[in-house]
Amino acid sequence: MRIRPISRPVVRRQFLLTLAVLLASVAATFSLSGCLRTAWPAAEKPAYPSTLSGGAPCGSCEAPADLSWKTVIPPPNEPGEPLDILGTIYQPDGVTPAQGFVLFVYHTDVTGYYNKEDDASHPRLRGWMKSGADGRYEFRTIKPGAYPHRDTPAHIHAHLYGPRYSERSIEDYWFKGDPRITPNALARMKELGGEPVILALERGKDGVWRGVRTLNLSRPRVRSWPRARDDRRPA
Ligand SMILES: [Fe+2]
């Protein structure tokens, strides 16, 4: 079979058509990226506060836009015993409720791990609450498991921040009756300048553990780096 050669005008026409399509797609791409830049400017992520130490996650950097005074931390079907913790945040006078302050809490799962990598800087179980005029906060979670390879008492980490009050770690929540709360553990905490807050939990008929902790803005202190480092599971 004889193949007819393509004429020169046809080749030229095809070339010009291809070139036009190429130029149009390049123009569209630039135009679209310009649009994207205009519509969604790069989010200005808040800087890591100087009042937090290097190992602690930054709650104020990643907080959802709308916060309530009350939150539920674990996803449905998270293994563990349900736990409710509630309380009130007060101004340093201990009487005036502190309005508009955010309590950020995070902890391990029931097996004592923060996530698959056990990276305490990016905990899976975490939540935020913003106090209203009455200063109250409340969160539902599960009782955290203690670190599997350490003798540190089971705990919930907590940070506070608010108007003219940059984010800082406050004392962990410990739980009365934990066999890991030994004289050694208490001494270690004291060495690091901390004062344990040991909650007495009561279990309701519904199987939910409940505890109360009052917070005062005059108490929270800046957490030291060694304690943050202590959260990491040794290799
Ligand atoms: Fe921890």
Descriptive account of the structure:
This protein has helices spanning 8-39, 59-62, 183-191, 225-230, and strands at residues 70-72, 82-90, 102-107, 125-130, 136-142, 156-162, 165-175, 197-199, 202-203, 209-212, 215-216. It is of the alpha/beta class and 235 residues long. The chain folds into two domains: 1-42; 60-230, Protocatechuate 3,4-Dioxygenase, subunit A (Sandwich). The strands form two sheets. Strands 1, 2, 5, 9, 10 and 11 form a six-stranded mixed sheet that branches. It has a five-stranded mixed sheet with strand order 4-3-6-7-8, with no helix packed on it. It is globular, with a radius of gyration of 27 Å. The termini are far apart. It binds fe (ii) ion. Residues 120, 155, 157, 231 line the site of fe (ii) ion (FE2).
Topology:
Elements: H1 8-39, H2 59-62, E1 70-72, E2 82-90, E3 102-107, E4 125-130, E5 136-142, E6 156-162, E7 165-175, H3 183-191, E8 197-199, E9 202-203, E10 209-212, E11 215-216, H4 225-230
Parallel strand pairs: 1-5, 2-10, 2-11, 7-8
Antiparallel strand pairs: 2-5, 3-4, 3-6, 6-7, 9-10
Bound molecules: fe (ii) ion.
Count of separate structural domains: 2
Q: Please state roughly what percent of the residues sit in beta strands, choosing from under 5%, 5-15%, 15-25%, 25-35%, 35-45% or over 45%.
A: 25-35%
**Spans where pLDDT lies below 50 across 5 or more residues:** 23-42, 222-235
Count of individual helical segments: 4
CATH topology of the largest domain: Protocatechuate 3,4-Dioxygenase, subunit A
The CATH superfamily of the largest domain is identified as Aromatic compound dioxygenase
Biggest sheet features? 6 strands, mixed
Bound molecules: fe (ii) ion
Shape: globular
What structural category do the secondary elements indicate? alpha/beta
By CATH reckoning, the class of the largest domain would read Mainly Beta
N-to-C order of helices and strands: HHEEEEEEEHEEEEH
Termini Cα gap: 74 Å
User: How would you state the average pLDDT, rounded?
Assistant: 82
State the CATH architecture of the largest domain. Sandwich
What is the number of strand segments? 11
